[in-house]
Design goal:
The protein is an alpha+beta fold. The chain has a nine-stranded mixed β-sheet with strand order 5-4-6-7-1-8-13-12-11, sandwiched between helices. Strands 2-3 form a two-stranded antiparallel sheet. It has two domains: about 170 residues, Thiolase/Chalcone synthase (Peroxisomal Thiolase, Chain A, domain 1); about 150 residues, Thiolase/Chalcone synthase (Peroxisomal Thiolase, Chain A, domain 1, 3-Layer(aba) Sandwich).
């Protein structure tokens, strides 16, 4: 059974926070941020604007693009590490606000790789239920888990959501999900973690929130593992299908850092003019990164019919993933 992406959509909050604005309360400069990350600005959710709320808007855009009414959706999968709550799954809130009838909804926790992990889950659902219409969303309000005094992390991230509609029946302009590969190494989990509030580091009533409640990252080590792992899994996917890097028309990588993206392209021997980059506008939006970029690439007519498109991501786990699409 083959899965197809028949619609894409994205949504970002209205509030734009530039690097210059960050200088007012973080020890940094616009030049420092741009030269090291490629980020010029990011979107930050308004108070009370949750992951489900962002996800609903992205999902509506994807459903409209697909020409599918919300009531026809059978399964909802949400990649996020910044859910509305631990219980219930944020996917159920998203489903409720969309007006989707009752049925399966599930959060997928794989940090920045969450969208691709959810996409592979959608393929599995369709293998068992070919009639299914699966809504796959990546939505993050990372600003809710950032220490705004830690310049090594707070300048990197932004909030946003992206979504796709996946079915077993192709439509005009749809993309075949040729294959998805997933991998990871739990022994490296401490390199990127949000531990505070979990069962291994519980919060206690009356005690102040500690640093471990927020994103903590060992940047240099993450850089090395991100480039190596995304390149390796991408090459593995190409080899599995008898393809070379030159057969790829567009790479849409996780938008974490421009230096990571450039190093990945170099290792794959793919020119940067075949790599989609929008990190300067949004920063790292984690699980929302790839579906936002995919929606933008389609909207900008950068993916003509017949294109081979490679998606690849890396996230806390540590985990990494790649997906091959054929339009």
């Amino acid at each position: 059974m083959t899965a197809y992406i028949i619609g894409t959509g994205a949504y970002v909050p209205e509030q734009v926070v530039t690097n210059t604005a960050l200088q007012e309360y973080v020890d940094t400069t616009d030049e420092w941020i741009v030269s090291r990350t490629g980020i010029k600005e990011r979107r930050i959710a308004a108070p009370g604007e949750s992951a489900s709320m962002l996800g609903v808007e992205a999902a509506r855009n994807a459903l409209e693009d697909a020409g599918v009414p919300a009531q026809d959706v059978t399964h909802v999968l949400l990649g996020t590490f910044s859910p509305d709550a631990y219980i219930p799954a944020t996917a159920y809130a998203l489903r409720h606000h969309l007006g989707v009838p009752r049925g399966m909804a599930m959060d997928v926790s794989a940090a920045c790789s969450g969208f691709l992990f959810a996409l592979e889950t959608a393929r599995a659902i369709l293998a068992l239920h070919p009639e299914a219409i699966v809504l796959v969303v990546g939505s993050e309000v990372i600003s809710s888990r950032l220490n705004w005094k830690d310049r090594s992390t707070c300048v990197l991230f932004g909030d946003g959501a992206g979504a796709v509609v996946v079915t077993s029946k192709p439509t005009s302009g749809s993309a075949e999900v040729v294959d998805v590969l997933l991998d990871g190494d739990g022994s490296l989990s401490e390199l990127l973690v949000v531990r505070g509030g979990g069962s291994s580091a519980p919060l206690k009533l009356g005690e102040p929130v500690g640093d471990d409640f927020f994103v903590q990252m060992q940047g240099r080590e993450i850089f090395k593992h991100a480039v190596r792992s995304m390149a390796t899994i991408t090459q593995s996917l190409l080899e599995k299908h008898g393809l070379k890097a030159s057969d790829i028309d567009l790479v849409i990588p996780h938008q974490a850092n421009i230096r990571i993206i450039e190093s990945l392209a170099s290792r794959l021997e793919i020119p940067m003019d075949k790599v989609f980059v929008n990190i300067e506008k949004y920063g790292n939006t984690s699980a929302a990164s790839i579906p936002i970029a995919l929606a933008e690439a389609r909207r900008e007519a950068l993916i003509p019919p017949g294109s081979n498109v490679m998606l690849t991501a890396f996230g806390g786990g540590l985990n990494w993933a790649a997906a091959l699409l054929r339009f």
